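In this section we walk through a basic example: taking a raw amino acid sequence and producing a predicted 3D structure, encoded as discrete structure tokens. The instruction is simple. Fold the sequence below.
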Amino acid sequence: MVKVCILTAGKGSRLSNYGKIINKAILPIKEKAILSHILEMFNPNHEFVIGTGYRGNDVKNYLKIAHPNLNIRYVKVRNYDGSGSGPGLSLLSCEKFLKEEFFFVPCDILTNLKFKEKVTFKKNIFWCSKVSERKTNQYLNFKHLNRRVINLVDKKIVKGKDFKSWSGLCYIKDHKVFWDTLKKESKQINKEYQISNGFEDLIKYKKCNIRDVKWTDLGNLKNYEDEKKKTQKFDFSKDKEFLYFINNKVIKFSENQKNVKKKYYKFKLNKKIYPHNVKILDNFLYYDFLKGDNFYDIASNRNFKDLLSQMKKNLWKKKKVNKIHFKNKCHNFYKNKTLHRVKIFLEKNKNIDQIKSVNNIKVTSIKKILNKINWNYLYKGDAYYIHGDLQFDNILKVKKEFKLIDWRSDFDGEINYGDIYYDFAKILGGIYLNYKEIKRNNFEVYFNKETSKLNFPKTKKYKIIEHELKNFLLINKYDFNKVKILQALIYLNMSPLHKPPFSYGLFLIAKYLLTKNVKK
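The resulting token sequence is shown next.
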């Protein structure tokens, strides 16, 4: 079985902030990592040699979770970012395991190719395509005559029909010639040691052919974002968290490893309400995929009554806490966090706060609106074990039970309790904004210098369901008006975490609701 080599050592500098948070090989596309798409090009019986470097443990952990049965040999690339580093050096690090014919694939391409189990070739093959002339300097370009490679030009503009750009995928038949040439040639391009150094003698002395392939270079930000838009109508994701659905598992990556641990400890405190088999591995939390109905799809008065009944029985557990300590927690969580998030939002979107009308209601600056809030009124919370993000997209009905996903890690650092009002506000927030429809881009945000018009989808039968929530709160002696204020603060806190135009809409609808509900 021919081996397959994939390099994941580089930093992903062309991907802007993504490259600082995660290894580019495990950026999600179509609900699984780019690396998973590459692995699925080949039969699972292949042996895979994977070069690791930057955030290499994240790559290894993802593969351990998502592809536990593959035969993978890892090679640690020592110099993946310093002087003389580059894909050529990274590939040389793998040489001792590749002294035979092998496939080479970069970790940032997407193609529809599928190779049979025992596929081999009688010559060296480079999979290529025609790219626009102005982009040819981004790639290695092969000059060919009747598909036979006769020359190469790396990272320079080339012209003519006899040039094609290399996708990065190749089959190295004459491996000894390749390795010998790669080791003896020391030239660098863009201060990097390139794989193309190994191709000079291959082209000169051996048969090298090109084959056509449709491929996407996901190694730069624009291409990656464009590819995401093809499969999701609106990018609802957060920049520091990534979600995967693969091989019957739900996998979530978070840059903050502490939050992953907190989520796991929180799960252990009340396993009954969450999916089965929840586990963590450094920056990853994962569990078995749960088949059920998303609550947005089954929203009804009866189902909502059942939900509240089960949450009262199985989720909301009263906690005895120091009242002063808990009041300080609510102060930090509600006021301090809100002021911090507003500051982040305004640093990038100051003009949005100058809008004077939202859906025909006059609004002032967010600073003036927040100054009208009776914060002490909000600090008097009620300590319970809570979910922390109890909107309908995180609620699944499995037979007659409700299971909760994507729970919040903590409430101002507290794992085993938080303010139950926060869960109520999250429920109301999910009634008022249908997040599932928003992810489908079914919302509108219009504004000019002074006025704005928002059109957000609500949960079906939202009036009946909202009325049922209000009755539940009244019967259990909770303050519905407080819930409405916290609902608006939740939208305000979400605004800097999401992308426009949704972020603008969240900020404006928060101002709208606070203006309506905060007592003067």
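Looking at the output, two observations stand out. The chain has a mean pLDDT of 94. Residues 116-213 form a domain with the Spore Coat Polysaccharide Biosynthesis Protein SpsA; Chain A fold (CATH 3.90.550.10). In the next section we compare this with other chains.
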